[in-house]
Amino acid sequence: MQETEETEEQERLSYQQRLKAAVHYTVGCLCQEVAEDKEMQFSKQTIAAISEMTFRQCENFARDVEMFARHAKRNTVNTEDVKLLARRSNSLLKYITEKSEELNQERKAKKKKQPKDGNQSCREPAEAGGGDSES
């Protein structure tokens, strides 16, 4: 029992280290782009500090949206939770709202097309199967 808990903890830490490495890599790439654009440089310590702050902020965001969903008596985080998180940044909230509306419109368009396509593809295998049977 204790070995299982230790293994799970090691896996969680390993996963967290991989996430941190991915954040660090991405921050490094972004800093390099900014450095080239602005003709300046970032020290390794600065990149590491930005990476650590970014990772911690993402952890906080994740906890917050999870709590928003729980407060709404849901198990799944949705766009409303993300909008609530972004409420203090007008530009970010506007961007998220626009993207959310675009996704909703795309889903509605797919749903309108799906019954036509779905019915045809459902009939084809049944028709093909019916013609091959010996009964």
UniProtKB/TrEMBL annotation:
Localization annotation: Chromosome, Centromere, Kinetochore; Nucleus
Keywords: Cell cycle, Cell division, Centromere, Chromosome, DNA damage, DNA repair, DNA-binding, Kinetochore, Mitosis, Nucleus
GO molecular function, one term: chromatin binding
Annotated stretches, region: Disordered: 100-135
An example Gene Ontology biological process: cell division
The UniProt record lists the keyword Translocase: no
InterPro entries membership: CENP-S/Mhf1, Histone-fold
Residue stretches in coiled coil: none
Gene Ontology CC terms: chromatin; FANCM-MHF complex; Fanconi anaemia nuclear complex; inner kinetochore
Family: Belongs to the TAF9 family. CENP-S/MHF1 subfamily.
Entry protein name: Centromere protein S
